[in-house]
Amino acid sequence: MWTMEKLMGIRLSHDARRVEFKDEVWRLPSPDDVLEWFKLFRAGWVYSGDPARAHAILHSGKHSNGFFLVKRLLSFGNLREIAAACMIAELRKAGLGKVDGVYGSPYSSILLAGDIGRLLGVKTFVPEKDPSDPKGKKMIFKPDDPAPEGSVLLGIEELVTTFDSGEATKAAMIAGNPYPVTFAPIVGVLVHRPPEIVHALPDGRVIVPFIERQVDAWDPAQCPLCAAGSKAVLPKTNWAELAA
Ligand SMILES: [Zn+2]
User: Fold this and answer.
1) What global pTM score does this model have?
2) CATH assignment of 4-40+66-215?
3) Which of 189, 232, 194 is nearest to 88 (CA)?
C-alpha cells in the first residue's frame, strides 16, 4: 500500500535496478504501482469502466475517461529517477541498443530525459521551444554543443497523446545539429494516453510506453460514459469519487 511517506522516502538503488525505503529493498515499481502514485498526488486517474463510478469533466468542459498531470509526480527528483529507471527497463526489454545521447521534448520531458541520460551514461541534449513561435509548438536545437556526426539519439517523452511535440522536437534536432545524426528505433514514453492505442510512429520509430491507457474526451451530449449511467464530476472538488 503506497502512502505519501513512502513516496517521499523511497530512493533508487545505486545499481538502478531496485528501490530502497529506510532499510528495505524493493523491486522497481510496476505500471500499476506508478498509477497509484499518480492517484496519491491527484495527478492522474483512469476510469475503471464501471458505470457506478464517476468520470471527469475537463477544464475544456468535455467529459473524459482519464486525466494525467505528469509534472506533479516528476517534480520530485527521487520519483523522477525511479520513473527513469522503470522506462530504461522497458526500453531494454524492447531491445534498446547502444545510444550516444538522449533528448526530451521541451520543456516537460527535459528533466526526465536528463535522468535517463545519466543512468545510461550518455549525454542529454536539450532542445528548446522556439521563442519566435507564440504558440510554443515549434522547437529549436542550438548548435553550440552539438551531437557528433553519426550519433544515435534516443527520444524521451513524459506524456504522449498525439506525438506532435515529439515529431517537432526530432525535426529540431535534425535541423539544429550541424552534423547528421540518427535516431534509436524506439521512443521511451512514461505515460502513453492516446485516443487509440498505436505504437508505430509515421517515421518508423515505435513507442515503448511504461504506463499506457486509452483516454478519450467527448462533448457532454455525446459522452458514452454519461449514456452508460456514470456521473460526471469536476476532478478538483471530487477527487475521492474519481480515484475510488
Ligand atoms: Zn459524461
Assistant:
1) 0.94
2) 3.40.50.2020
3) 189
